[in-house]
Amino acid sequence: MDNEFYCKFIQPDPSLDSFVENIGMFHNPAVEAKEVVILPDGRVDLFFMRSGPNESFNVFLIGLETAPEQRSIPSGTFAFAVSFRPLAVEYILHTSIADLINSGKNLPDDFWNLNDDNLKNLETFTLKITEKITELLPQTVDERKHRLFDLIYASNGEMSVKELSEKTGWSSRQINRYFNQQFGLSLKAYCSILRFRASLGHIAEGKLFPELNFTDQTHFIKEIKKFSGVVPKELSRNKNDRFILLSVLKQK
To answer: What's domain 143-251's superfamily in CATH?
Structure first.
């Protein structure tokens, strides 16, 4: 058991909920690399990662994914992660990730001034990250954007662009311009990713038929395969726990 790939994710302090979805860590103590498939989940990840106990931590910012990606996690890898909601890109990270679709970039190793004491375990990391993000919380947030993301998340991406526009008082064209400039994809594309992620919860429970507003079973299978690379039945089996996101859902 001690030589198995391990990951754990916790909910942030409620005061950070609009910007942070979870905080976590993973460790691969095995002799061999861990082969995984990263699935699109609508989150923006900040990683503090090292490849061995005597290595220093490197910092990476990973943008939104629109397709599954095979990755190999080398033996000895240890990482902490903050999974941000998109609103954090503008208000916490003060950047755009439009050029980071299905990719990422290195940040300075002293980003946010984390040191070895902050990177001992998930508890010390969470304390430091909570403290840092709390310092960065904006005094005000554009209410249209706040409302938009609340609706997107509450509906698991099932609300139409037209309805979202009407409920936020923000034109569809302006919303899509914001999404493309800030995140590198359209609102509709982002909503499809969230609907896929919500479907993973059902697939983790063995429900291999659409529970959300897919046109029919064929459409459901097509969308699941688009974002995971496999059909729902194979995804549910999750051979060798290679779909980490699904493994985490099954632990709940």
So the answer is: Homeodomain-like (1.10.10.60)
Q: Which class is 6-136 in CATH?
A: mainly beta
Residue with tokens 């430091």: 128
Exposed/middle/buried for residue 2 (C-beta within 10 Å: 0-12, 13-18, 19+): exposed
CA–CA gap between residue 246 and residue 252 (Å, rounded): 10
| Cβ pair 28, 76 in contact under 8 A | yes
Number of helices (H), then strands (E), belonging to the chain: the values are 9, 8
Mean pLDDT within 31-56 = 92
Nearest to 38 by CA among 99, 4, 79, 1: 79
- What integer pLDDT is reported at residue 1 of this predicted model? 46
Phi–psi pair at 203, nearest 5 degrees: -65, -35
Per-domain residue ranges for the chain? 6-136, 143-251
